[in-house]
Structure to design on (580 residues):
């Protein structure tokens, strides 16, 4: 936000500009556009089967937040936390953060309920959504809207996502990539939240720690001048309050504020670690329903096999943080463009996921094609318009490094042949080291 | 212009499922159009005239219709002579009514840079608005 109170619009000039004539479209403009959209329809349908874990509400503006928002903050900012002791304890904060990191890295599965609340408008209304979820260290997950019979299930080893509800048609997306920047599972909330909380706390300089009870259980409350932008990645926040369950060291509640006013809350409750019911990831569409099948184009292969499919040696890191191991590799000869369709079509893609507990890192390579200048950050999303990564070079690849709130940490770069991305649950230093360790896989 | 606009519409159509609703739809679409136009400029290697240099069919409001038409032609030429960055800033804020922050999101630059581009663009366009003609290039 800018605070400059000076006049912002030249009304006279604006009126004159609006009065200027704009060239008419060519007579066949509408017909040509319709033809082009028809040609794109299959790709659009492939990516449109299910999207409910994305947040469907519009951007919220910060300016002019009414008193009701402050009341909402008081309510949501204090609810559920019985503060017993408050102090500035960097050593304790560091130990808690380290425990959180270990918990995420060592868990084999996690189930629970996810509740998201965010300020809905300048008038201070609060929007609430709830899901139940389950995820495991193999990359499988299941999300169900609370109170609904349906579910969205991603099967990592198959690259398949099945989504169903009460409709007679259920979504069956196959050939999905392991994750960004290509079309992967619809898991943005879960994948982005857990690791980013730990990174933000670890990077914050003044973390205040309090002993509290949360829903009757012992917990720590960590408050820090940091920004996660968990719910609305484009909306600024300046402080976080993270409640951490002592028994599991998992974050159970994250409240974000801006200048003392409530922005959002993410809450995990009914958490169960390493206690996954049998059949959690077995899709069970309603009897008699029929699939709306689509295929994004990725196929699971071994990393070694991928070279023979794409015709070049894929890159693999010679260094990863301790505990990460290769989980799956997928290849696609041809798949949709990245960066919201603004990059060229992706050809001969190799995407490899490395996992450690519930964390993951994804390395991808694809052909540059004829016009290297046409490429921009493949992981660029609308959430981060206005923010560019910093220039970064790794090996012969020139690109950008982006570690910022509301986004998956990543680097990207290209030489005259390949576009390369590295993204995932890494600190800035780890990201740089991983990227600089990339080398062509030797056969 | 038609080709760039068609490209932008197709990109928006393909990218819509990934639109998370974190920005306004208008801002998101503006950004796609802006980037597509810049790509088109780069491909052509020259500046296209995005706004007609012809006077408007309906004269801008003013006491003297003929003078208004003449001033509009001057303004149109002056606008066409601006670089794409300055032109986009002044059209988004002054003509389309976006806030500095919204324009910054569309253009991928800080709001302060929007302000400085606006200052330069307005300084180059005001002589035409006052009927003083001139070529900003």
């Amino acid at each position: 936000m800018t605070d400059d109170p000076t006049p912002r619009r030249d009304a006279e000039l604006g009126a004159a500009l609006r009065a200027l004539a704009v060239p008419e479209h060519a007579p066949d403009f509408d017909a040509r556009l319709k033809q082009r959209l028809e040609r794109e329809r299959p790709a659009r349908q492939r990516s449109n089967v299910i999207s409910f874990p994305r947040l469907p509400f519009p951007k919220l503006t910060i300016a002019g937040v009414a008193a009701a928002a402050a009341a909402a903050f008081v309510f949501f900012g204090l609810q559920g936390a019985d503060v017993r002791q408050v102090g500035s304890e960097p050593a304790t904060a560091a130990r808690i953060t380290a425990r959180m990191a270990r918990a995420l890295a060592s868990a084999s599965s996690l189930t629970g309920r996810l509740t998201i609340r965010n300020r809905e408008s300048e008038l201070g209304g609060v929007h609430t959504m709830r899901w139940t979820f389950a995820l495991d260290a193999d990359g499988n997950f299941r999300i169900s809207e609370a109170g609904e019979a349906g579910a969205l299930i991603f099967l990592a080893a198959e690259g398949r996502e099945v989504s169903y509800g009460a409709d007679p048609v259920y979504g069956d997306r196959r050939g999905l990539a392991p994750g960004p920047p290509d079309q992967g599972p619809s898991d943005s909330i879960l994948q982005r939240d857990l690791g980013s909380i730990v990174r933000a706390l670890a990077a914050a300089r003044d973390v205040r720690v309090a002993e509290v009870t949360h829903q009757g259980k012992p917990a720590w409350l960590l408050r820090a001048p940091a920004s996660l932008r968990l719910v609305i990645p484009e909306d600024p926040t300046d402080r976080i309050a993270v409640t951490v369950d002592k028994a599991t060291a998992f974050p159970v509640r994250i409240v974000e504020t801006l200048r003392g006013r409530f922005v959002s809350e993410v809450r995990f409750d009914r958490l169960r670690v390493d206690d996954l019911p049998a059949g959690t990831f077995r899709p069970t569409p309603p009897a008699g329903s029929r699939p709306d099948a689509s295929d994004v184009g990725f196929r699971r292969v071994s990393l070694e096999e991928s070279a023979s499919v794409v015709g070049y040696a894929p890159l693999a890191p010679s260094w990863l943080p301790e505990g990460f191991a290769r989980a799956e590799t997928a290849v696609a000869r041809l798949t949709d463009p990245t960066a919201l369709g603004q990059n060229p079509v992706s050809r001969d893609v190799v995407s490899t996921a490395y996992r450690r507990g519930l964390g993951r890192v994804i390395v991808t390579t694809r052909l540059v094609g004829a016009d290297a200048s046409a490429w921009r950050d493949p992981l660029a999303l609308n959430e981060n318009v206005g923010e560019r990564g910093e220039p970064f070079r790794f090996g012969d690849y020139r690109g950008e490094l982006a570690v910022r709130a509301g986004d998956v940490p990543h680097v990207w770069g290209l030489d005259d042949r390949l576009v390369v991305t590295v993204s995932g649950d890494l600190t800035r230093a780890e990201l740089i080291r991983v990227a600089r360790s990339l080398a062509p896989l030797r056969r | 212009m038609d080709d760039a606009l068609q490209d932008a519409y197709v990109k928006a159509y393909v990218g819509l499922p990934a639109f998370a609703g974190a920005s306004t739809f208008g801002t998101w679409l503006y950004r796609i159009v802006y980037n597509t136009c810049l790509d088109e400029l780069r491909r052509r290697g020259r500046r296209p005239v995005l706004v007609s240099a012809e006077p408007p069919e309906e004269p801008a409001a003013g006491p003297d219709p003929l003078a208004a038409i003449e001033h509009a032609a001057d303004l149109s030429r002056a606008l066409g002579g601006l670089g794409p960055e300055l032109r986009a800033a002044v059209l988004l804020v002054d003509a389309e009514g976006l806030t500095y922050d919204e324009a910054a999101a569309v253009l991928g630059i800080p709001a302060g840079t929007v302000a400085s581009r606006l200052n330069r663009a307005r300084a180059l366009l005001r002589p035409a608005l006052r009927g003083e003609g001139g070529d900003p290039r």
